[in-house]
Amino acid sequence: MRHKVANRRKNTHFKRDFDQLNGLFTELETSIESSLKEDEMEVFEALDTLEENLDDLSYLTENATHDDPLRNGNFLEAELPDALRILIAGFRPFKIDDFKAHCQNLINIHGFSKFREAFDALFLHDEHLNKREMRAIKHINRYLMNRMMDTFASITTEGSRTYAQSILEVLNKPDEFFRENALAAATKDKFQKAKKLAIKAIEAETAKQIAEIERQGLPKEEMEEAIEHVKKKSSKQITAIEQMETMPKELAIKAIEAETAKKIAEIEKKELSEEDIKKEIEQVQKESSEQIAAIEQMKPIPLDYYVEAERRKMLVEAQRARALFQSYDKVADFVLNDILAKKTMDERTVTVERYLLMAEKLVARKNFDAACQIYAAVQKTPVYRLAKTKEGLSTHTREVLEDLDKLFNKVVDLRARCEQDDAYLPLNFTVTDITFSTDEKNSFVLDSEGKIVKGCSGLAGMDKTIANCQKATTSTSYNPDYMLLDEIDRNQAELASKTQKEIDKEHDKISQELEPRGNAPESSPLLSKMKYKKLIRLGIVDPPKRSEQHHKLEELIHTLKHGIQTQLTRLKNFLVRTDPPTVSRTSSILEEIQDGVTSLFDKVSSFFHDKLRSLTPSSKFNREAFFQIKEKWSSINEDNEDREDEYLSL
Where is the composition biased (Basic and acidic residues) (predicted)? Predict the structure, then answer.
């Protein structure tokens, strides 16, 4: 009984100490916020880690055996808003994976968008959430943002990989694959010039016969009948030639001879000296002889040429590019619709903030195609014109948008960035590159024997295209959230039933309703508040990972102490660049926290030392209950040290 009274007294003292530290921490955030100009993300991370370590320490001093409201899963049957509150109340720092699994269970029951809407309603409008509840909120927000990023990356990466594999397969197909079509093309091409020459000769002969008839001075009716007869005969001859599957060399030579005779006749009619006429006729005859000799000695173009021509056709098939663009549009269209679906300024501003932060993270992850689609959605007119929405974005996110402008509006810079990061360039640019490379102006190269030296693979620019496709085929795969993926597919199906004009008109109408011209609502002040700005920004921060397992409670306490002191030192270092008055006050707060933490750890160590001594072997139940917390802290994630945890690697 005496021990219970003493423990209650100590718990009261602990609560008072933690309340005091929480008050100092809140004051610290306010003080830093007023002067925060640089290193914002590092400061956020330091504050976040400091706050979490303090909360972990607080949790250790509480009753570790109280009921877990998530244990039996009954909360899943509650209405979504109620289930969310129970989920948040059941947050345990040593059960992060379980907590995320519970989030996913609610998503599977209610759908991704409904879960996110309910979460945002709680997050944005409940002013009474305490620090521990906000910690749970942070983990939910981070989970949602990561699932969205993974799903977007999964869609675009799969589309890019499929396109890239198909291009490489075409380039690697054996010549035999194209042989049948190549033979057909070769047969057709071989006689094409001869056909044209023959038809031209018939047309010239027809014109000559008609002129002769007109000079004969026949009666009008008789003359018209004679001319019609000549035209019909000519038409039949031309049709016969056009329908020919082969064209003998003799016919081509005959056509050249007829054309030559016509030219000579025209020269003879000129009023020139006999010597000049002779020279012109000799020149025409020389050209004619060369043409005839070329036909007589003509070697067929090698089949290799036609094989590569067929390969070139396959490379630019429209269906392949269409499938790629559809995978990209899936993401861009979903993001656009999602932003326009937010009716309040706060919700819309937070949604755009999240998406731009996701784009920043995707660029950092080298998922340039997924990031590009988010950027494309934000740049589309219905969202681009929402000036008041963008006015409410955090300073950092407005800078992110400027960086995305520079990155995606200059292809040269984007290519350089992708090469620098050893990442693949979004393949919509590869589609354009292939179109230019395979243009008929870029001829295949033949050697003196008429054999292919450079086929499709050797066309200008194809080396970079091949290298980019190879990178795309080996890119990292991501596991999508299938509930979100289903919603994205449904959104795409709905849009597919409308014309682009209808979609644009609908989006423009919604945009005008959200921010009417000349009467736009006030921008949201939400992201000017440290609490919201920091929490959303932390959604793209990879949580710290544990570098070792704590098999002793003393080790855990030591790690927490070291972690808190490390973050306090980091924060002190960040203050060097701020104004002296702010430094003075903020430094004073940090010193108070430092003193409070030092005193608190002495008390915590003493508390657990006394508690362990009081638990005799006879009090087996109490001993096991007490050690539950130690086991939970020390055993979590032992099989996988790379999974998410709450501790810094120190």
Answer: 499-516
